[in-house]
Specification:
Length: 371
């Protein structure tokens, strides 16, 4: 059953409660939140040119500022790696994303992108995590699926869950589930956020279902609930034991492992500012692995999009340059599809390199992804 149809059925049957959210803890499905904030932004954030990360940062900051005003304490949980049994699903999603990307790339700036045709820029999750750290917001990066950890934390803290995942209609979350589509944080009034609260008890009472049979219903509806029941919630400890020894390795060894992975020599980085060392490593690897047929100007275009502003410049200087570019109509400029593709490839290299750097306990300083 599609999530939209399941949600519509529950809304039509009035199986939810109109509430105003204030003065509470809130368990947040991080992936659902950053997808929702990027896709539902107003004005709509760019998806043609590789992503509008400064605009996305503004949207995220405004969201958490609203929570703060309403005295809502957020606890964010992020997915880790996918289970092997989801491989087919991931392959399908990748093909679907590629088709959507082609459609977006060929849509003129003055034309509206077709409904439900969205592609998330590669570094959105990393920018999101960067913002959480800057704001001091408590978050946990899981090693696998976040759903079972979210349910456990919600019941332990006695907080509702904010997500868009249809699984949470069926999970036994004591304080209920808040769907992001109905979480009207931009319409807060009297420091309260209008929302709809869904509880499992209303669902099985209406359909006269035995709570013990909910996993069966979940399987029929196409949810992951039944599989998640068997997961060991301690797997993360085992969003640790295997990775803890990494920080004991000397920093120069961890840096050498990183540079060898990206095929970069130490001498290449000697005169590079610290904040640019990682992007330069990424660029060297990307350039060395460009597919035949990609022209030199393609590389130049993609590089300029990243290096147009000095990452060590003051924040107000960066904002000034960004505003100048917008005033000059850069937002309406549409690159050729092969240029956009090259830049997306660079961003994918950056994303994987950031994760490798984090796994190695950050032997190189990390750049500000939002910039």
């Amino acid at each position: 059953m599609e999530v939209s149809k399941l949600k519509k059925m529950i809304d039509d049957l009035c199986l939810c409660e109109e509430v105003n959210i204030e003065k509470t803890g809130l368990i947040i499905d991080g992936a659902a939140l950053y997808y929702s904030l990027y896709y539902n932004s107003d004005p709509k954030l760019d998806q043609r040119c590789g992503g509008d990360y400064p605009g996305f940062k503004d949207e995220v900051c405004n969201f958490f500022k609203t929570l703060q005003v309403c005295e809502v304490t957020p606890y964010v949980f992020l997915d880790g790696g996918s289970d092997p049994d989801k491989h087919k699903t991931l392959v399908y999603r990748r093909k679907d994303t590629e088709e959507k990307a082609k459609t977006i790339a060929t849509t003129k700036p003055e034309d509206a992108v077709p409904k439900r045709c969205n592609v998330l820029p590669p570094l959105v999750k990393d920018v999101f995590i960067e913002i959480l750290k800057e704001k001091g917001i408590e978050f946990k990066q899981c090693l696998g699926e976040a759903d079972p950890v979210i349910v456990s934390a919600a019941n332990q803290k006695q907080c509702p869950v904010l997500s868009i995942d249809k699984d949470f209609y069926i999970f036994d979350v004591h304080k209920g589930f808040l769907h992001l589509d109905n979480f009207e944080w931009k319409s807060k009034k009297d420091d309260k956020i209008p929302a709809k609260l869904y509880t499992r008890s209303k669902f099985y009472q209406h359909f006269k279902l035995d709570p013990a049979l909910m996993p069966v219903f979940a399987s029929i509806a196409g949810n992951d609930y039944s599989r998640l029941q068997d997961k060991d919630l301690s797997s993360d400890e085992q969003k640790k034991l295997q990775l803890q020894c990494l920080h004991k390795a000397p920093e120069d060894l961890r840096r050498r492992v990183f540079q060898e992975a990206l095929q970069v020599q130490t001498l290449d980085l000697e005169n590079i500012p610290d904040q640019l060392k990682l992007p330069v490593c990424v660029t060297v690897f990307w350039f060395n692995n460009l597919k035949l047929g990609q022209k030199a100007e393609t590389v130049l275009h993609a590089l300029l999009l990243w290096f147009v502003c000095d990452p060590n410049s003051p924040e107000d200087e960066f904002e000034r340059k960004t505003k100048t570019l917008k005033d000059e109509g850069v937002n309406n400029w549409q690159p050729q599809p092969h240029v956009a593709k090259a830049f997306i490839q660079w961003q994918c290299c950056m994303r994987q390199s950031l994760h490798l750097n984090q796994l190695l306990c950050s032997p190189l300083p990390e750049p500000q992804c939002a910039r």
